[in-house]
Each structure stands twice: as structure tokens, then as C-alpha cells.
Amino acid sequence: MTLGLIGAGHIGSQLARLAVAHGHDVVVSNSRGPETLTDLIAELGTHACAATPEEAAKAGEIVVVTIP
Q: Is 45 exposed, middle or buried (0-12, 13-18, 19+ CB in 10 A)?
């Protein structure tokens, strides 16, 4: 399963960590652009990638919006 995350703050990054730990793929996005997520993606490993919010919404079988 692929989880699309729109928002990579405290909630989005924790959901990404949990999903990857359980063998799922994640597509993480934020309003600042994929290039700002390199540290998080490096931490999450090969089951994660950074994208724009639109790309994350299209890629996710389940999409979670974690914005204030």
C-alpha cells in the first residue's frame, strides 16, 4: 500500500515513520517543495519519496492531509 502525505510536520513525519516501519511505501509532501524533505526521506529509506502535494495525492492509495 502507498500512503500519500500532504504535510510533513510532526504528524505527517510520524505517520510516515510508522507506515515505513510496517512495510508500506510513502509519498511525502509539503508546501515548501520536495527539495526541503531530503533529511526525512533519507531517514525513511527506500520506501519513501518526496513529491509535491498534487503528486502525493495522486500516488497514494490512502491520502492523509496533516496541515493546521
A: exposed
2 membership: H or E segment, kind and range: strand 2-6
Cell of 68: 493546521
Judging by DSSP bridges, how do beta strands 62-65 and 48-51 pair with one another? unpaired
Q: Return the percentage of the chain with pLDDT > 90, whole number.
A: 97
The burial class, CB within 10 Å (0-12 / 13-18 / 19+), for 54 is exposed
Query: What secondary structure letter does DSSP report for 23?
Result: T
In eight-state DSSP terms, residue 53 is H
Q: Would you say the pTM of this structure is higher than 0.90?
A: yes
